[in-house]
Amino acid sequence: MDCTGFMEWAVGNGAHHFGVDIRDCSNEGGKGLFATTDFRENETIISIPVGLIITAGFIAEMPNYCDVFKRYCLKPFEALVYFFLVEKKQNSKWAPYLEVLPKSFSTPASIHPSLEPEDFPYCLRKQWYVQKNELKMMYKKFVTILADNTIWDHFLWAWHIVNTRCIYRNNKLHPLIDNTEDDSLAIVPLIDMLNHSNDSQCCAIWDGKLNLCKVIVTRPIRKGEQIFICYGSHTNGSLWIEYGFYLKDNICNKVEISLGSLSLNITDNGGIPIVLCHLIKIVMIKTLCDLRVLLGSVSQIYIEK
Which Pfam families match (predicted)? Predict the structure, then answer.
């Protein structure tokens, strides 16, 4: 099943697009969506019906899954991973979608799983530690559910599918799902083909009246351009850990400055008396805070104390 077949399947199940095509992306790797016509601001590019939107509650209503969810109370993220872990391409409604999903990922969890938090810059250590621990605990849970039928590599693939493709949606809570941390995750076929850029031209919204997930143009798009959406404000380190890529010119990058280390460096290498060094530190704090106010959302400067 190629991308054309997938598009036909999506349209046959109620999806609509108004001039997009799936193509290989030489720069980003993988695939992306490209405009086959010009789009103006506020135009709808894609609409996906609720019947194609995969949520934890949606899966819990499927005959092959509800019995498992009655015995094991899974969180929304876990329920989505479980779906991709056990759903088979043969005789599945979702086969055309499963066929076009990526087979591999370039995240550290996939290609450098032995890395320790200490191998990362200080600002990324907690993120990597939390992710590694989440993977370990979730895998143990699925081993309990599926016994010896859980293969780590296949689990890791399913986890990546959810982590790299889910979007925010305020879902109706389902009694078979552990909603203690709410349920706001959804996988939306076709829309999940949109790649990330801080300079995106569209956004995804939920149309409650029509029960559709839509992609709306936020600035004009020319025919032939790749269509981007913004995943949020992420540094390149965070993008690599979560999605396996980075941006060449990322306006969300930031550098943490340790004033304690910098003060010591000034004292040791510059011959500046310690009293004067403290005065410099106070001036620097004020300067950095002023920069934070001036730069606003364009950049962030964190003061590590």
Answer: SET
Amino acid, res. 18: F
Does 149 lie in the same domain as 28?
A: yes
Measured over all CA atoms, what is the biggest interatomic distance in the chain, rounded to whole angstroms? 76
In a shared domain, residues 105 and 218: yes
Give the C-alpha separation, 180 to 38, whole Å.
44
Q: Give the CATH number of the domain where residue 204 resides.
A: 3.90.1410.10
Residue 208 and residue 169 in contact, taking contact as beta carbons nearer than 8 Å:
no
What is the full per-residue pLDDT of the chain (305 aa) written as tens digits?
A: 589 999 999 999 999 999 999 999 866 668 999 999 999 999 999 999 999 999 999 999 999 899 999 999 999 999 999 999 999 877 899 999 999 999 999 999 999 999 999 999 999 999 999 999 999 999 999 999 998 778 999 999 999 999 999 999 999 999 999 999 999 999 999 999 999 999 999 999 999 999 999 999 999 999 999 999 999 999 999 999 999 999 988 988 877 766 665 555 555 665 555 554 454 444 444 444 444 433 443 333 333 32
Strand order in the sheet with 212-217: 16-17, 44-49, 212-217, 202-207
Read off φ and ψ for residue 82, nearest 5 degrees: -60, -40
First to last CA, the chain: 55
Based on the domain organization, do 203 and 182 belong to the same domain? yes
CB distance 40 to 14 below 8 Å:
no
The tokens describing 243, both together, are: 């999605």
Q: What is the pTM of this model?
A: 0.84
**Domain final position from 243, 267, 293:** 243
Count Cβ atoms within 10 A of the Cβ of residue 296 and give its class: 0-12 exposed, 13-18 middle, 19 or more buried: exposed
Could you say which of 215, 243, 271 is where a domain stops?
243
Residues 193, 266 within the same domain: no
Question: Domain span at residue 260?
Answer: 256-304
Q: Is residue 116 part of a domain?
A: yes
Is residue 157 in some structural domain? yes
The rounded distance, in Å, linking the Cα atoms of 140 and 129 is: 17
